[in-house]
Write a structure and sequence with these properties.
Family: Belongs to the MAM33 family.
Radius of gyration: 20 Å
Number of strands: 9
Mean pLDDT: 76
Oligomer: single chain
Protein name: Complement component 1 Q subcomponent-binding protein, mitochondrial
Low-confidence stretches: 4-45, 117-125, 159-168
Order of helices and strands: HEEHEEEHEEEEHH
Strand order of the largest sheet: 3-4-5-6-7-8-9
Number of helices: 5
Pfam families: MAM33
Shape: elongated
InterPro entries: MAM33, MAM33_sf
CATH topology of the largest domain: Mitochondrial Matrix Protein, Chain A
């Protein structure tokens, strides 16, 4: 059964693009969103509203139910990713499209994300330092003979690879590997890390992905898609799973 850790709460975020202006807007939006549960927040921790906490299952269940109610108010419809068909199974979202006989598949796992803090993106005394997650994702391109090119990507808020040239929305390539049609053990395949790619190959690979729909628009769309998807996973497989467990005890 799909599951997701609920150890750290991540309030959903919204960005228009990875620019300095939008990063400031991101921090301001997060502060406004957090106000939905402002009465339940204190010194970085959220407490249930009971003035006299009850020990044991009943007390925990009460707090979880209250959190579920609050988070339910923030649920949004999953946005479209332009040019791709999206499906979700548990905590794994899959985006697919066809390109000149090739199959382009992008997989985004709600477990596989990079944590950043709001203060790393915007310096504003009015914005609380609060963690949120940006997606890491796997692109698999299968050609007509069945060979697969797999590219691991993520968003780098610090511009780690800015010296390499062309980027879209700070989307970066982390690694590249190629699998033969008969490969049934991806873990045994040799992987080239981004640090070992020349600048020319790195930039050309970015352009190669762009012609297959992995471009600036995609980077924007997948970021928007992920923030809604991750929040749904947190609610469904984190809070509600805990609620169901306590109710069945």
């Amino acid at each position: 059964m799909a599951c997701i850790s609920a150890a750290v709460r991540r309030l959903p975020v919204s960005v228009c693009s990875w620019t300095s202006v939008s990063l400031r807007a991101l921090g301001q939006h997060r502060a406004a969103t957090a106000a939905v549960a402002r009465s339940h927040v204190g010194t970085g921790r959220r407490w249930c509203s009971a003035t006299t906490p009850t020990r044991g299952r009943v007390g925990l269940l009460s707090c979880v139910e209250e959190e579920v109610s609050l988070e339910q108010q923030l649920v949004q419809d999953l946005p479209e990713v332009t040019g791709f068909t999206a499906t979700a199974t548990g905590c794994l979202a899959t985006l697919e499209r066809e390109h000149d006989g090739e199959r382009v598949k992008v997989e985004v796992d709600a477990h596989n994300a990079v944590e950043v803090l709001a203060d790393e993106l915007v310096q504003d005394e009015e914005v609380e330092e609060e963690p949120f997650f940006v997606p890491a994702f796997t692109i698999t391109i299968t050609n007509h003979v069945g060979s697969r090119l797999q590219v691991e990507c993520s968003f780098d808020e610090h511009g780690q690879y800015s010296e390499r040239g062309k980027e879209w929305e700070n989307m970066t390539i982390n690694s590249v590997s190629v699998m033969a049609p008969d490969c049934d053990s991806p873990d045994s395949v040799y992987t080239i890390t981004a640090e070992n790619l020349s600048a020319d190959i790195y930039d050309s690979l970015m352009e190669y992905l762009q012609t297959r729909g992995i471009d600036q628009k995609f980077a924007h769309d997948i970021f928007q898609y992920y923030r809604v998807f991750e929040h749904r996973c947190y609610l469904q497989y984190g809070l509600k799973a805990l609620q169901n467990f306590l109710n069945s005890t």
